[in-house]
């Protein structure tokens, strides 16, 4: 009798960090895609760069912190921390060189053909220099602070993500050389507009302008050399939550510390002087493996400035989201409350307008004299938030307004603290969630008195209450007057604001108590259905799939014969297509004009299918350390819409990436799934 060899961890799971780098490589492929408009390719270069910044600030920083603590824990795929960091460094260097080559050898020449140029000082036309010298004198020189390094001047603090010039100057009398650092200011445009001939858009990198005028910063000294460099620091915030301490104050204290986090990445140009590099590594307490030699410009995230040019012929055609047909009557909006009394509304952003659905729901509630209370969670929102303004209006009108503001939302902490204070000043009841958990769910509850009867209206979604990102993030949401959902949200808000220990709900699964167990139960049920010859199937759409328990359950379902279709935008630690383990699992990723962000789960249920939408990705943090909500979608029209979305995304000819059993993502298909959804929304909307 033969026995099957147990699979090693590396054969069973893919590394989450390397999988994330694979996702960012898919973003880079869009920057390399010659079929896209030129400035859209520039946009994807900028997205790739900013994605990589955050990856190093959080994920790589976390690995380095654990290494410094002497932890020896291995990743689920069996790699040590040292092995992971080495593989990350190798893969990142490959991608950074690809990005630089794409910009230097392809996109920059194409930009020049389109009369958009980024020049160096020595390449400027002669008549541009006087104006730029005047600009430097008036706008740049006053904000520069050259910092010398000598026995009387210690090595200066280098802030995270700042662009700097390492300058070597020499005293002509003594011949002694000294190091100095000049920070490139981040409150001046990175690309300085050069007076363009023939209406061309010509730019000079700010660091080039500063370098050309270094003698003015070091009068009497000889400028021997100058080299741009950029440092990335650990930017994660860890708050020790204590019931006896004000969480708001604790978070503010930690934010002030974040800027002093240890350095985790040093970016330099290929021409960097080895001695200066050695000094930087020593003073920043970094290793040679932390250095990335970049051909050409550093910090291509600054290319957003180029993308912002008014050149519509070089961009995607503008898309105006449609109003959901049930939320419009000709030129005038309907009452959202009247519409929801007739049945649920599933909205799909950005194809259907956030402003005329979710935002209008909150704004109508704030203005309606029959509304008694509004309760809402806020994880991230925009700078000038109409949602927050509506909540403030509601409170000032005398309504009870309760807002759970998650002030631990990474990189939005300061903005959320500001929103929390504005809401409190207006008379809203502001709560910061539960100790030890982030409140990540996207929920709103409106309580309305109608003819002496209390009725509850709800919104549960997959995306944040952010009108800006709702135009570029793909998300789903249900607006409903279903009494069961209203009762569930009432219980949930009582848990978030009080001491309720509610863990079971009617139409919801809520993490950290029931989402993991609920999903595992349904996956195992599909396996039993397949084994018994009954209809079985699993479809899941999330941003990330990392949790080993969920992955193992999906492997068991595949082995039992369940067809599993996974639509994963970002990280996927599951290895599909492995004989005897996952041959019935397909994994796809769609990366395009809009950021695929919705979370949807579907279980065939032996002919009685279940559809769920919500805020939870399949990661440890979402299932164990956050308040997340999944809503069972019972409305037949909404179920049919979700089915159509999945059918379209998984069609054989759709343009996407598929993950192979060899852990390689391969681009396939030609049909633009997102473009078809845009066309359908425009056809069926108002």
From TrEMBL:
One of its GO terms (cellular component) is polyphosphate kinase complex. Mg(2+) binds at residues 380, 410. Its cofactor is Mg(2+). An intermediate of this reaction is the autophosphorylated ppk in which a phosphate is covalently linked to a histidine residue through a N-P bond. Residues 13-118 form the Polyphosphate kinase N-terminal domain. Its EC number is 2.7.4.1. The keyword Transferase applies. It comes from the Bacteria. It holds the Pfam family PP_kinase_C_1. This is Polyphosphate kinase. It comes from Geodermatophilus ruber. The gene is ppk.
């Amino acid at each position: 009798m033969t026995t099957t060899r147990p699979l090693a961890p590396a054969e069973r799971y893919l590394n989450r960090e390397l999988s994330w780098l694979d996702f960012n490589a898919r973003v880079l492929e869009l920057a390399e895609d010659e079929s896209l408009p030129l400035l859209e390719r520039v946009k994807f270069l900028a997205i790739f760069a900013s994605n990589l910044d955050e990856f190093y600030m959080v994920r790589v920083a976390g690995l380095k912190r654990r290494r410094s603590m002497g932890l020896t824990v291995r990743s689920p795929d069996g790699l040590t921390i040292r092995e992971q960091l080495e593989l990350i460094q190798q893969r990142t260097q490959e991608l950074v060189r690809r990005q630089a080559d794409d910009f230097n050898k392809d996109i920059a020449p194409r930009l020049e053909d389109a009369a958009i140029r980024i020049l160096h000082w020595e390449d400027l036309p002669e008549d541009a220099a006087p104006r730029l010298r005047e600009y430097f004198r008036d706008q740049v020189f006053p904000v520069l602070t050259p910092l010398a390094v000598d026995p009387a001047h210690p090595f200066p603090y280098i802030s995270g993500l700042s662009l700097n010039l390492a300058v070597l100057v020499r005293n002509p009398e003594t011949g002694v050389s000294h190091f100095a650092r000049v920070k490139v200011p981040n409150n001046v445009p990175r690309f300085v507009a050069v007076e363009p001939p023939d209406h061309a858009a010509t730019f000079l990198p700010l660091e080039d302008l500063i370098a050309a005028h270094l003698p003015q910063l070091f009068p009497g000294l000889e400028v021997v050399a100058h080299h741009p460099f950029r440092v990335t620091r650990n930017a994660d915030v860890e708050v020790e939550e204590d019931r006896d301490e004000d969480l708001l104050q604790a978070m503010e204290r930690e934010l002030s510390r974040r800027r002093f986090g240890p350095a985790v990445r040093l970016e330099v140009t290929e021409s960097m002087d080895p001695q200066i590099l050695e000094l930087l590594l020593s003073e920043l307490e970094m290793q040679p493996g932390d250095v990335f030699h970049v051909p050409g410009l550093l910090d291509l995230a600054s290319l957003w400035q180029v993308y912002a040019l008014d050149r519509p012929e070089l961009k995607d055609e503008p898309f105006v989201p449609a109003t959901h047909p049930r939320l419009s009557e000709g030129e005038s909006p309907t009452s959202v409350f009247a519409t929801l009394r007739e049945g649920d509304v599933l909205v799909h952003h950005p194809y259907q307008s956030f402003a005329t659905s979710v935002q209008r729901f909150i704004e109508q509630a704030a203005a309606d004299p029959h509304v008694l209370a509004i309760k809402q969670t806020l994880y991230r929102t925009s700078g000038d938030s109409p949602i927050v303004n509506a909540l403030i209006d509601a409170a000032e009108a005398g309504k009870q307004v309760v807002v759970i503001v998650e002030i631990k939302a990474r990189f939005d902490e300061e903005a959320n603290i500001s929103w929390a204070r504005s809401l409190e000043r207006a008379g809203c009841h502001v709560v910061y969630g539960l100790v030890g958990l982030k409140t990540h769910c996207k929920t709103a509850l409106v309580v309305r008195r109608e003819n002496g009867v209390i009725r509850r209206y709800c919104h549960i979604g997959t995306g944040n209450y952010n009108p800006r990102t709702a135009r570029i993030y793909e998300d789903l949401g249900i607006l409903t007057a279903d009494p069961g959902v209203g009762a569930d949200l009432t219980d949930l808000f009582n848990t978030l604001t009080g001491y309720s220990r509610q863990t079971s709900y009617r139409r919801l699964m809520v993490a950290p108590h029931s989402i993991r167990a609920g999903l595992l139960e349904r996956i195992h049920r599909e396996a039993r259905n397949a084994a018994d010859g009954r209809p079985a199937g699993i479809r899941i759409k999330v941003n990330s799939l990392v949790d080993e328990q969920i992955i193992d359950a999906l492997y068991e379902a595949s082995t039992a014969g369940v067809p599993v279709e996974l639509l994963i935008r970002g990280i996927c630690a599951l290895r599909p297509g492995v004989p005897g383990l996952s041959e019935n699992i397909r994994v796809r990723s769609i990366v395009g004009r809009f950021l695929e962000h919705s979370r949807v789960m579907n279980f065939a249920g032996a002919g009685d299918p279940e559809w769920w939408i919500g805020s939870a990705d399949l990661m440890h943090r979402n299932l164990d350390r956050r308040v997340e909500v999944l809503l069972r979608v019972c409305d037949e029209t909404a179920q049919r819409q979700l089915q159509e979305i999945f059918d379209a995304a998984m069609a054989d000819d759709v343009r996407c990436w598929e993950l192979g059993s060899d852990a390689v993502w391969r681009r396939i298909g030609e049909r633009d799934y997102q473009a078809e959804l845009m066309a359908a929304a425009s056809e069926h909307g108002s």
